Structure prediction request, 322 residues.
Amino acid sequence: MKRNQKNMALIMAMLLISTGVSGGVAAFAEESSTVESTTVNSSSTATSSSSEEELKINAVALGNALTTEQKDYTLKELGIKGETPIYTTTGQDLMSFIPDGGFTADWAVYSSVRMETQKKGSGITVDIATPKNITKITSAQYQNAAVTAGITDAKLTVASAVPIDGSGALAGVYKIVEESGGIINRDRVEVAQDEMGVLSKITEENKDKDGYSDEALNAAQEQAKTELAAKTADGQNLTQKDIQETVENALKSQGIQDVMTSAQVNELTSLMTSMKDKNIFEDFVNQLDLSKAKDQIQEKSKGLWASIKGFFSGLWDSVTGK
Prediction:
């Protein structure tokens, strides 16, 4: 098996063993989605600014525009029952994390988030606690953006007391990490916000088309990122043509290529190009904990996974020589 095939297979294996599918210049008007709870696996975790130890976080970031009654409602929806650090997401935070988003210091933020770190390898789980009030951004979109930004191994619960698009919640996650002593890479955050905006825009444009789904788009996005990371791991110098072909193949594999317009494909290609320019695919490779791949695959090899257990076992043996 060639080296690039091994890298691709291992990274796709890590993608397959996640328990669900994974998720702008985001100056949204903070607009419905269904109740969603999905998980995407990745192995990096937030680290302390003073050491390499993993941060342990269970905190909330509330929007600054909430009234006292709305705060109580939001905290209840987020599942807060005892003492938990509570921070406030402001317009200044939006300007800091999303400098090109058109936000101002007095921006009213309503969407709020609770972040709970999980054990290494758990991946990201997103629960939208108030689906009727988070009207634009889906669980899969939050996931894709969080992974791109470097937020991993965490449960994110999103809520709002009023109908809003939900763009302020991810900024709240970034604030929680920094307030807890972690480090947020602004380059990755910028691309993550762009990603969330692009995916949300494409879903809005295609929502009434037969054969289209937000889940399929986000699955294609995660697949394309995984494939490009595999090529990067193999030392390939990605060209614009490579990136566009990878995007098109991912859309085709998810059955939505014919639904997408050329402009939308170009938007996704530009987004992936930005990820390449900011070395995010290299980061994805570094985040994968391949040493745990075999154990995770074997653990999942029951029921549906029994049919692919033999393949993955042979794959691992061919790579390790065991």
Q: What stands out?
A: The CA atoms of residues 23 and 144 lie 2 Å apart. The longest helix spans residues 186-206. The radius of gyration is 19 Å.
